Amino acid sequence: MSADFTLNFRQLERYRFSNLFGGTVPELFTDEPPPLGEDSGPSPSQLLVAATANCLAASLLFAFGKFKQDVAPLSGEASCVIGRNEERRLRVESIAVTLQLGRPAATLTHVERVLSTFEDYCTVTQSVRQGIRVEVTVLDADGTRLK
Fold first, then answer.
1. Best label site of 56, 59, 91, 138, fewest CB within 10 Å?
2. Which residues touch 49 (CB under 8 Å, ≥6 apart)?
3. Which Pfam families match (predicted)?
4. What is the tally of structural domains in the chain?
5. 71-96 per-position pLDDT tens digit
6. CA separation for the pair 11, 26 (Å, rounded)
């Protein structure tokens, strides 16, 4: 598990930033879509959705791995709803994540136990949920909805 970390960032131009995580992590460039930026990298909202989805995927893989279950290749889709709050400021209102296992559920063991607990271990999702609704769907390789 990763420990605390520090991010260093600097403005390159307009709304484009360089983000340095240190160590061997490559530099990440972020930007806002037009008309503010040039869409030359993911926006902070996109990173929030990606972080939520990727954390859930890693947590699901880890949970199945505890039972020696290989569900690769895991894939999915994440989306968000952006709306305005009472002060008319844009906010991420909700995030929806669909995770699809690489194997049919019928070939796996401990599915119910994994599905009932894996979200609890997702640091990002549980942190985000304190202010944003996060909906999670899990499908098996056949497209059968498991959660």
1. 91
2. 78, 79, 80, 92, 95
3. OsmC
4. 2
5. 999 999 999 999 999 999 999 999 99
6. 17
* Contact of 134 with 98, CB cutoff 8 Å: no
Residue 103 within a domain: yes
User: Coil, strand, or helix at residue 128?
Assistant: helix
Integer CA distances (angstroms), 30 to 27, 48, 75, 81, 142, in order: 10, 12, 24, 20, 36
Residue 137: CB atoms within 10 Å: 14
Q: Which tokens sit at 64? A: 């199945």
Structure tokens at 98: 């669909």
Residue type, 45: S
Range of the domain at 12: 1-42
State which amino acid sits at residue 30.
T
Which residues have C-beta within 8 Å of that of residue 97, sequence separation ≥ 6?
52, 53, 56, 76, 77, 78, 134, 135, 136, 137
